[in-house]
């Protein structure tokens, strides 16, 4: 069972949709809904969800996964690059979800490029 989950690229795409949902709800859960960083969370989550759905229904192209990995990198390194203090709740949320988004997206790219006989 675990092998089918680990090596199923569609499972990673649905995991991205789940991360997008968590990112969308995080401003309310962690109390930064009234701050500008909430808008970053909301727009980023909509884009991640769109790319997750697009990857789920694609024919095996990698562009959705690469864009999702880039968006994850933006969330991971964005709070430091902007230089604007987002607050500890938003920064921690962006770091965690950004790192997981990057990891899952790159994992899906690896699975897509792996030979089929493995």
Automatic annotation (TrEMBL):
Record Pfam families: SPW (PF03779)
InterPro entries from the UniProt entry: SPW
Any coiled-coil regions, as ranges: none
UniProt entry tagged with the keyword tRNA-binding: no
Domain of life: Bacteria
Segments forming domain SPW repeat-containing integral membrane: 12-106
UniProt keyword terms in alphabetical order: Membrane, Transmembrane, Transmembrane helix
TM spans (from-to): 12-33, 39-58, 88-111
Protein's UniProt name: SPW repeat-containing integral membrane domain-containing protein
């Amino acid at each position: 069972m675990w092998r089918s989950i680990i090596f199923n690229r569609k499972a990673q795409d649905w995991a991205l949709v789940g991360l997008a949902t968590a990112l969308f709800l995080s401003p309310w859960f962690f109390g930064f809904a009234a701050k500008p960083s909430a808008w970053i969370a909301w727009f980023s989550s909509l884009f991640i969800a769109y790319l997750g759905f697009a990857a789920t229904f694609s024919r095996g192209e990698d562009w959705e996964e690469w864009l999702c990995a880039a968006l994850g990198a933006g969330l991971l390194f964005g709070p430091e690059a902007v230089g604007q203090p987002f607050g500890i709740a938003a920064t921690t949320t962006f770091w965690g979800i950004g790192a997981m988004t990057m990891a899952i997206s790159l994992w899906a790219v690896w699975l897509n490029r792996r030979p089929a006989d493995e």
